[in-house]
Amino acid sequence: MEALKTMDLNALLEKNRAFTSLGKVANYIPELDKANPNAFGVCIMDLEGNEYCAGECNEKFTIQSISKIVTLMLALLDNGKEYVFSKVGMEPSGDPFNSIRKLETSSRKKPYNPMINAGAIAVSSMIKGDDGRDKFNRLLDFFRKIMEDDSIDVNYKIYIGESETGNRNRSMGYFLKSEGIIKGEVEEALDVYFKQCSIEVTAKNIAKLGLFLARNGVTSTGEQVVPYKIIRIIKTLMFTCGMYDKSGEFAVKVGLPSKSGVGGGIVSVVPGKLGIGIYAPALDEKGNSVAGTKFLEDFAEMFDFRVL
Ligand code: GLN
């Protein structure tokens, strides 16, 4: 993209680095607490193969909730959209990502959407495979294919922490089982979910994921891995539900389909143009990267990239 060639990405990043001091690093697992709160990295990739990176864009962090969009793609490929959305809704919940509140009271008797934990755990249970190990290996291969990086793997310290502290998620899993939303073993579904959250990536890996979505499901080798009709669903759910219970405000201020994770990552898509990967682990009260969000507000306005 010509417009980006003249941009001073370092200056834009450094201007927004100050916002890292307004947030807090996730600390529900001791391992996550070790992240440097002032770290900030951005990587932007365009469809012509240009790459623009600034700051700590090679630093590793766990993908956390960003994994929800990748698992949803594979679950849709494995099961089709009729089945998936018979078990999980498509509406923003307006509640925190780990809320249990509406699970029982909702008249639909299913999680509001696949971007909140309850919906994501249901989606993780739909990945096909002979056993838990095979299901997760298929999913990990799918992450590697989309991000075009065979070295992507699980951070096992974080995975153990997720599993040991994951009792709220576990309670949702058992509730979903009691409602017939999870078909197989609950612990197997939870294990896939804890592992997918613990996949370690860099801002560059996340930008590649964004680029894959910007290209409507095609990798840089030209292979159509996911059909457009699934990518459209993913981008729409990112736009409406991707930033937890701040998705509405984010849509107004940034206006790009995006998904955040409590590891400090954000993936953003400028459809047909760019994939953006961000790492800045200091989070706001909803669990979104503060500096990452501020950077995206500036960037989207500067180049008039907003989709709406
Ligand atoms: N592992 C976290 C959880 O399940 C991920 C959530 C997130 O990134 N919001 O609570």
TrEMBL record:
GO biological process: glutamate biosynthetic process; L-glutamine catabolic process
Binding residues for substrate: S65, N117, E162, N169, Y193, Y244, V262
Catalytic activity: L-glutamine + H2O = L-glutamate + NH4(+)
Keyword terms: Acetylation, Hydrolase
GO MF annotation: an example: glutaminase activity
EC number: 3.5.1.2
NCBIfam families membership: Gln_ase (TIGR03814)
Family assignment from sequence similarity: Belongs to the glutaminase family.
Protein name (record): Glutaminase
Species the sequence originates in: Cetobacterium ceti
